[in-house]
Write a structure and sequence with these properties.
single chain; alpha/beta; 138 residues; 6 strands
């Protein structure tokens, strides 16, 4: 039988991909956690788990949560939701996506999305490779 966090990750991924999001999966080997990287980390990471974490993720779907909460942890706004409110969390992600596009503009959003690695760090070192081809080290 498939675990709850994997089923939730597949459901959320399918819902977001249906409207054009780029979603990458990563499953923890040691805990019951799934991590969905949204739009090459431009929208952050959605963490789906049965326990709280020491790390700070923008979106958190936690099995033991009783209600939706928003808190600021070390300067990062974090959203927590129970499994029963998956659709509300998906709507929140879509809303934040639209707000980010409005803030950056469509062209800048696409440029930032293209030059980001799935881990979230900017891909500034590899920009020259895309512009001028591979370097010749001989």
């Amino acid at each position: 039988m498939e675990k709850d966090h994997r089923r939730a990750a597949k459901y959320i991924s399918a819902q977001l991909k249906a409207v054009g999001f780029e979603v990458h999966h990563r499953y923890s080997k040691t805990t019951d956690s799934a991590y969905l990287t949204l739009e090459n980390s431009l929208l952050g990471v959605l963490r789906i788990s049965d326990h709280l974490s020491k790390r700070f993720h923008l979106y958190n779907l936690v099995k033991g949560e009783k209600r939706r909460t928003e808190i600021t942890r070390q300067g990062t706004q974090c959203y927590f939701a129970p499994y029963s409110e998956i659709d509300i969390l998906i709507a929140k992600i879509k809303y934040d996506h639209r707000q980010l596009i409005n803030e950056l503009g469509e062209q800048e959003y696409k440029k930032q999305k293209f030059f980001r690695l799935p881990s979230g760090e900017k891909n500034e070192l590899n920009i020259s490779r895309y512009k001028s081809g591979y370097r010749n080290f001989s």
